[in-house]
Structures
1.
Amino acid sequence: MPDKPRVRFAPSPTGYLHIGGARTALYNWLYARHTGGTFILRIEDTDRERHTPEAVQAIIDGMKWLGMDWDEGPIHQSDRLARYQEVAAELEKKGLAYKTTKGAEDKGEALAFRVAAAKEKVAFDDQVLGKVEFQDEVIEDFILMRSNGWPTYNFSCVIDDHDMAITDVIRGLDHVSNTPRQIMIYKAMGWTSPRFAHIPMITNSEGKKYSKRDGAVAVGDYANAGYLPEAFANYTALLGWSPGGDVEIMSRQEMVEKFTVDRVRKTASQFDFQKLEWMNGKYIEGLPAAELAERMAPFFKSAGLDPDARGREWLEKLGQLLKERAHTLVQFPKLTRYFFADDYEVVPQAAELLAKDTTPAALKAALAALEKLPEADWTPAKLDPLLREAAKAAGMGFGKLAQPVRAAVTGTNVSPGLFEVLELLGREVTLARIRRAPGVG
Ligand code: GLU
């Protein structure tokens, strides 16, 4: 065996990169980077009807989004048919495989592995599960080459793992029942098996396998929903692994430093949207202002708003003002429409407040004060004392003046700090909105 680990992610390109696949890829990648080993991307595309080039691209895009790179590949199994045929012929020659028409719909000949020839009980030490034992008598002869001429997963997987000198196979628990068959093939060929590590399932809140019915499964959907790749990778890595202690938020570099297979849990991990969202929020809060603006911008565009309508510096301030409230990037345009357009929604609490008969007086008092403040002084430092003074002069508490102003200019009863909001709205928009409030203009 090579002295440095060689691992692979071997997706079957049938659709998109899903959460489980992303986690498997990530564990292999983290392991390779932690050990200074080699990470290989192998596309298992021998099921010619179910596989598409678009799916390969979606997997590659998802991996890149999550910050993974690979040292070898992508290697396509469909390019290696001659090699599979060669090993098939060798096993047949040794009498360990035989031609059969059993089970073939097209009545063509398939090649089956003769299980009876591998007499010993197949057991292996799994790096995660510990000792795994299967009775060989329950495993029947199985197909290596289909009647359509293409290899089965178990066959091509073993040949490739051997030829690519894979030292550790890290994959989902759903494959553990394939492992004894694969070990039989290694033995039949006189090859050494790699080490195996089967990682536990990802479950929903009921403890069942997490599926489409429970929420988004495609990594791309999380990208579109405004999750940061570094947050998604961090969360996904923790679905079944922890570095110990209560460390949760970890940079990619920290994960690389801390990742070991022996800290992968044996038991299933529950996918917890709330936790993912919380973590994403933490990552958003931690981004430098310019970086957050850069990440938010495309989400404004998708919502039909021009992020740079008032310049980048303004957008950066907006990001800073909202970052503790927005847990995903899509929430930024949703929470800030009133900064960009006049067609924002007025929530019932704000509408109620605006309809109150005491409101026009409060708004007029605010308006009179604000009208005197020139554009150049339109800053929180000046707006704050000005409005407090105005409330005092009108004989009302500050809240009695501020809440109607907030409702009039944002359509909400909750917003970030009023002075910062007024600053970013600008003098003109603020005055216009107060003037057009019921009973004011
Ligand atoms: N193509 C298989 C899958 O996508 C690979 C399993 C393995 O890693 O051996 O599930």
Note: The domain at 348-435 is CATH 1.10.10.350 (Arc Repressor Mutant, subunit A).
2.
Amino acid sequence: MIKVLVVGGGAREHAICDAVCKSEDVELFSVMHNRNPGIMKLSKDFKIAKETSVDNVVEFALSKNIDLVLIGPEAPLEAGLTDALREKGIQVCAPTKDAARIETNKEWMREIMDRYRIPGQIKHKSFNDPKEAKKFIEQLNGNVAVKPIGLTGGKGVKVAGDHFSSIEEASEYAKEVIEKKIGGEAKVLIEEKLEGEEFTLQAFSDGKSIFPTPAVQDHKRLLPGDKGPNTGGMGSYSAENWILPFMEKSDYEEGAMILQRVIEALNNEGCPFIGPIYGQFMLTADGPKIVEINARFGDPEAMNILPILKGDFVEICFNMAEGNLARSKIDFERKATVCKYVVPEGYGIKSMTDQPIDVDEKRIIEEGALLFYASVNKRDDKIYTTSSRSLAVVGIGENVEEAEKICERGLKHIKGEHIFIRHDIGTKELIEKRIEHMKKLRG
Ligand code: AMP
Ligand code: GLY
């Protein structure tokens, strides 16, 4: 019996746990900060603790004789959880603190791309002097993204047109990032603003080479039609041919090549990257550009790829950890997926917490949809909202249209007075808009 520990309590981690439990002869354990009912049900035992409290997680892993640890979110990577577990001789399929800098230090990520001349790089500079930052913003005509260097839980990046509309405002925010040390350092990263369609390309990495998974498009904005504030992601879709309707196969291949180059660079830097890696790309008129690289699966994007993975997930993870991914037989079903999050009313602004949600699990499954719980708490057989995303429903079908319908049928069995869903995700109308946008850009 292989004992696997999954760290994290969101819908991404529920999907990871689900994939783990499909492997043979596996016992699942988990550590999470919330009481995720989906993960609790799958786990032989679990511990409620902060995922970043390294000592707690290590102690739990040792006490349960864990063979393999998977880590969902980025914060424990930065806290050095992988390193601490490995020191105790426990196998981990996740990057070390040093390798995870590819996500946790945006300045370093851009430096690595420069040093190794990795394609997909964009204009960028970092500053600790607000006046110098302003000069660079002026040079770029205010067409910039202003970014803290470190992690901010997805809330620190501000982009021209979305969050500010003048050089003054952009410079003001850059100054604030420096002075308030937003993201941990008295520094700010200024990047040129990219125009295009975003896509996610996740891959398995064994430190030397990658195996890319189907491309996914997330929807960051809160409201239909991509309006409202940025969120952690309201939902996502993937297509049956593993690329997205607005991209070419060569764009996908370019993205995969860029990720492979990043993995080689990290290996060369003495910090080989083990585990899932996630390239967030902007497909521009000039091809795919790197917006960000994440040291983990995406949330929601993990829910698009793990349910259609063919092959033994736990074995794949062991092979990544052991630097021998080539030993794994990896494939994906030729199916489309649509994932929509149910979030508390007010999410992205001020969430209504502790509101009951009525989930009819049996009916959702009967509709052929999948259900992944996120940041909810279970008390006395009832589900309650927290301030974060509550749960996600995934439809899988022969094409995006069918997957979207299945997802919607599943969502009908979730009821609550204070919940919100972006129903336009995966609809023909929105996808047509993306295709048109890309056509216009490419001329
Ligand atoms: P990040 O936290 O870096 O993923 O940024 C959050 C969001 O800001 C991304 O999903 C993009 O939509 C947007 N963004 C970040 N960097 C840029 C950029 N250089 N150009 C345009 N949009 C960006
Ligand atoms: N899909 C956004 C993220 O996982 O960061």
Note: DSSP finds 15 helices and 27 strands in the chain.
